[in-house]
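agent: user wants the full assembly modeled, not chains individually. Plan: 1) parse entity lines 2) check alphabet per entity 3) run joint structure prediction 4) return tokens. Steps 1-2 passed, two entities, 573 residues total. Proceeding.
--- entities ---
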Amino acid sequence: MSIRSAVPATVILIWCSVAIIAPLLPLKPDEILLSKILIGPSADAWLGYDDLGRSIADRLLMGARTSLAVASSVVSISLAFGTFVGIVSAWLGGWWDHVIVRIIDVFIAFPGILLAIALAGLLGPGIGNAVIALAVVGWVGYARLARAQALAVKHREHIDAARALGTGRWRIGVRHLLLLISAPLIVEATFGIAGVVIAEASLSFLGLGVQPPAASWGSMIRDGARYMLVSPHMVLAPGIAIVLVVLSINLLGDRLRDWMDVRLRP
Amino acid sequence: MLRFLIARLASAMVVVFGVVTIVFLLVHLVPGDPVEVMLGEAAQPADRESLRHTLGLDQPLWVQWGRYIQGLLHADLGVSLHSKRPIVEILRERVSATVVLAVAGLVVAVLIALPLGILAAVRKDTLWDQASMVFAMIGVSIPNFWMGPLLILVFSYWLGWFPVSGMGGVGSLVLPALTLGTALAAILSRMTRAALLEVLGEDYIRAARAKGLQEGTVILHHGLRNAALPVITVLGLQLGALLAGAVITETIFAWPGIGRLTVESIQSRDYPVVQACVLLISLGYVLVNTLTDVVYAALDPRVQLHT
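--- prediction returned ---
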């Protein structure tokens, strides 16, 4: 593995393992130390304390858990649902395909995470609603991609052959179609994780994601922005964490795309 | 061309219709009784009934939907629950600020992306190329809710060059536009590089060089012109992300536009205003996308052949 993959891969690995083992670590993300309010980084607390005197390092690690949990659930839901819809649309064709394509067009017409912000706002703040809101917006991209890919391979000979041999619909769908079109979907999902990490942090930044005292990188930046003049360290740590994770995922996604040799983007 | 235009407009109308329907349904997603959520639990039953009636929530869903469409056709989006003013009036006050910010963000993005993308393509595989692609990679990875506060910290607090927030004068536009435009600049510069590289390999570029034209003329007139189409398409498609980014950017910089209005209305549970904001921004996006397609077709004669 080249250094250009090794560095981002290490970052992702640290992010995932920290997120998974965070509850086992001796962290006190909610412990308020009034004597430490807004105290900057020092030898014993290497990222300092926030406006309530909570350890920023501990909150950062718990925030990793939030972002991984949201990102993995949103991407798996969107990927599964979107792929299913896309394949069904391409497979059935005709009137069904027409209607599904229109629905996809309508969802794509909502810019970026605007719909997610509105949805999360209407459903009420909370991590579960944030996941729902992001998945409602997220499935469309996968549906469109899966449909386009499925249309391209639908009439290949091996599928005709499988059908001639009397293979069941589901079996053809999964073994002969899904497997064949999975590479671009996996690449898209990789970039999707980066997108959801930012989106979750955006919702939390707006106060629509995780609720206090739970930690999210987005809400840490939100809290920190108020005290930026006196203690910029509150904003710096979570921001750098987001950029590192997102940058690493994007870099790996690029490598993955080259490796799988799929051309998704213009 | 006319047939293309009609087909494109027809499909845009279908999308608009769908967008309106989803936005209409948004308020019905509020868990529990929306009236109770809006008024709070302490409200009098009579007040609830009156609000329910004002919002038309006592009617069947399809009647409400019909009324909503009818209202839209008469440019009537209802009344804000908070200020009791007509929503159309509120939007009218706010929309120009968002348009100004979005255009400024777009200008920033193009001003950064074009030189960077051209430089990367012309000096392919040099340090320039790598540096500009590193910028592109970092640019898409920096969330604007982090970039904004950082810019404020450096350029407002430390250097004192620009105001911290609010709208007034050109100076106040610089930081929000930078915050909003950077991600788009990153995507555009990658796109410009890729499109230009593809074009620079063409025979007519070699012919232009063989004619003895200056390299600058070759790149700008023969290269960039032909590379413009995919770049314009991406620009149109990315405008949606730009508009959504305005929601956060406006919140950070207290910019009095539609985005900030959206967040304020979510916080004050003024659902009809949230609805109207989402509708306005989305329709703006549909409009821009349709225009992009039309411009694309007008610029590239090959597009018509396939429609």
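agent: reporting back. Chain A touches chain B through 45 residues (CB under 8 Å). Residues 149 and 181 of chain A are 6 Å apart (CA to CA).
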